């Protein structure tokens, strides 16, 4: 996927953005346009691609009318959210399994509590699987939304050069920079989740711009991916804890809190490196790299 969505600085920005948008929308439609209900894996790939589309809209947000950005952002967000359910239920079960696997010589009481949690999550998975088999209308709605949005994107009148991306990158990096500072000041589930969303946004935007400065930006994207993994695992634990919140499982919840604490500590260490530059300096470096690559 990475090579096909990289914007080429020597070509017109509008052509490149439309090319990437069309490729991504076609990818979503291809995953969803199947006989019957798409598989869990196809839906998961469609959701990941929709995240990239939303990041593309954020990247050019300063170069298109505000109303157009809002429509695109909401369309891609609503489409992604419409496709959730089955995989999320499986992630909760897998998170519980990983939590238990990290314990050697698990005490009998903890095993008993984990068994109760597993039974609760398996019931949720059964419900999600049933809903998944009945999702044909929802899939059709998403495909129709994307077809309409593709037509709107064709009308985007983008300026040429890095100026088309400057405001978008600056906003995304600044939001992540601020979210990291807030998590450093006050570690919490909410603040970790907010940083995770901003890290994902920046990771996809860097993926689009990676051709500008290939090795440094490739390494930086890998760093963002690792930070996203730490924060994503923390989020999975938070969702697991919420799912079993009505059950009296203190030992399971203690394991969750301890592991979440370790993950946030790792995220803070890596985040200090990831967001070491001030937002303005970060964007100026990208703008300079763009001009150098464009003139080569």
Brief rundown of the structure:
By secondary structure, the protein is mainly alpha-helical. Helices cover 78% and strands 0% of the residues.
Which features characterize this protein?
single chain, 0% strand, 296 residues, 78% helix, mainly alpha, globular
Write the layout of secondary structure elements.
Elements: H1 13-32, H2 40-59, H3 66-82, H4 86-101, H5 108-132, H6 136-153, H7 163-185, H8 189-209, H9 214-243, H10 250-274, H11 279-295
What does this structure look like?
The protein is mostly helical. The protein has a domain at 161-296. It has helices at residues 13-32, 40-59, 66-82, 86-101, 108-132, 136-153, 163-185, 189-209, 214-243, 250-274, 279-295. Helix 2 (40-59) packs antiparallel against helix 3 and helix 3 (66-82) packs antiparallel against helix 6 (136-153). It is globular, with a radius of gyration of 21 Å.
> Biggest β-sheet: count, sense, barrel?
none
Q: Give, in order, the helices and strands.
A: HHHHHHHHHHH
- Determine the number of helices (DSSP H or I, runs of at least 4 residues): 11
Average the pLDDT over all residues and give the rounded result.
87
Structural class given helices, strands, pairing?
Answer: mainly alpha
Strand content: under 5%
Write down the Rg. Answer: 21 Å
Q: Outline the low-pLDDT stretches.
A: none
């Amino acid at each position: 996927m990475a090579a096909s969505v990289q914007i080429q600085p020597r070509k017109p920005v509008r052509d490149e953005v439309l090319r990437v948008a069309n490729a991504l929308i076609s990818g979503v439609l291809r995953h969803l346009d199947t006989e019957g209900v798409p598989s869990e894996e196809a839906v998961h790939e469609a959701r990941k691609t929709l995240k990239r589309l939303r990041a593309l809209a954020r990247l050019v947000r300063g170069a298109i009318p505000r109303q157009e950005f809002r429509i695109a952002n909401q369309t891609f967000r609503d489409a992604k959210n419409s496709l959730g359910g089955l995989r999320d239920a499986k992630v909760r079960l897998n998170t519980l399994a990983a939590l238990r696997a990290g314990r050697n010589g698990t005490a009998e009481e903890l095993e008993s509590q984990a068994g109760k949690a597993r039974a609760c999550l398996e019931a949720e998975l059964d419900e999600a699987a049933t809903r998944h088999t009945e999702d044909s209308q929802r899939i059709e709605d998403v495909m129709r939304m994307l077809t309409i949005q593709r037509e709107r994107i064709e009308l985007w009148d983008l300026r040429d050069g890095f100026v088309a991306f400057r405001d978008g990158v600056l906003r995304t990096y600044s939001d992540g920079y601020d979210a990291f500072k807030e998590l450093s000041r006050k570690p919490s589930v909410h603040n970790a989740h907010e940083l995770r969303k901003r890290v994902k946004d920046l990771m996809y935007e860097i993926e689009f711009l990676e051709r500008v400065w290939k090795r440094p930006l490739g390494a930086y994207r890998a760093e963002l991916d690792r930070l996203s993994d730490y924060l994503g695992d923390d989020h999975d634990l938070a969702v697991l804890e919420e799912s079993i919140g009505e059950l009296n499982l203190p030992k399971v919840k203690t394991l969750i809190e301890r592991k979440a604490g370790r993950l946030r500590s790792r995220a803070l260490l890596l985040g200090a490196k990831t967001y070491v530059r001030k937002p303005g300096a970060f964007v100026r470096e990208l703008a300079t790299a763009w001009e150098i690559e464009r003139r080569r």
